[in-house]
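Example (one chain per record):
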Amino acid sequence: MTADGERPGQPPPEDEGNRNVENAVLLGFLAVLVGAGVWLLSTMADVRKVQDCAAQGRRNCVEIEVPDRAR
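Predicted structure:
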């Protein structure tokens, strides 16, 4: 045995359950980060379109949402 209580030639024990939880949390964080990036880029593109329209001196640059008529 070595000074830290492990046997020589044996790999240190790994806690697979804890490692799987860490990987799942990291994957969730990465998914949220990618989603936020996509949302941010989409919002920036929409704002750029409105600013380009306004810079050209046009009116009614903002899209008007009309609800569907229920029959």
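Caption: Residues 23 and 62 are 43 Å apart (CA to CA).
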